[in-house]
Amino acid sequence: MAIFARAVQQGLQLAVPAGVVGQVWRDGRRQVRLARLLASDLVEIETLDDGRARAAGQLCGATRTRDVVDASVVLCARARGHAVLTSDPDDLHRLDPSLKVVRV
């Protein structure tokens, strides 16, 4: 939440691929802060439509990886020129070594 607060102060727009929401969402009644974050006007949930899914699959094929959600994160960040906040930067760097990643 501290990272989100800093983003709000700086007027930054945040993007979260829908697959990431699926990976972290368990029970909205117990994830009130996460629910508020995802509902914020500063957060765009990027859908995983057919085109994005194919692009993520193609990136996985080109890099010989398997995680389509990680690939969608990379593609989302590339398209927006965003850094990625993650606790596991190694998988993302396998997909794109030049990606700006911030370990949290």
Q: What is the name of the CATH architecture?
A: 3-Layer(aba) Sandwich
What proportion of the residues form beta strands (DSSP E)?
5-15%
The stretches of 5 or more residues where confidence is low (pLDDT under 50) are none
Biggest sheet architecture: 2 strands, parallel
Question: H/E element string?
Answer: HEHHEHHEHE
Task: Return the average pLDDT rounded to an integer.
Answer: 92
Number of strands: 4
Rg (C-alpha, Å): 14 Å
How do the strands line up in the largest sheet? 1-2
Q: Can you describe this structure in just a few lines?
A:
It contains six helices and four strands.
List the helices and strands and how they pair.
Layout: H1 2-10, E1 14-17, H2 18-24, H3 32-39, E2 43-46, H4 50-63, H5 68-80, E3 84-86, H6 89-95, E4 101-103
Parallel strand pairs: 1-2, 3-4
Helix pairs in contact: 4-5
Which short descriptors sum up this protein?
6 helices, 104 residues, alpha/beta, two-stranded parallel ribbon
Task: Describe what you observe in this structure.
With 104 residues, this protein is an alpha/beta fold. The protein has one domain: 5'-nuclease (Rossmann fold), CATH 3.40.50.1010. The chain is 56% helix and 13% strand. The protein has six helices and four strands. The protein has helices at residues 2-10, 18-24, 32-39, 50-63, 68-80, 89-95, and strands at residues 14-17, 43-46, 84-86, 101-103. The strands form two sheets. Strands 1-2 form a two-stranded parallel sheet. The longest helix has 14 residues, at 50-63. The mean pLDDT is 92.
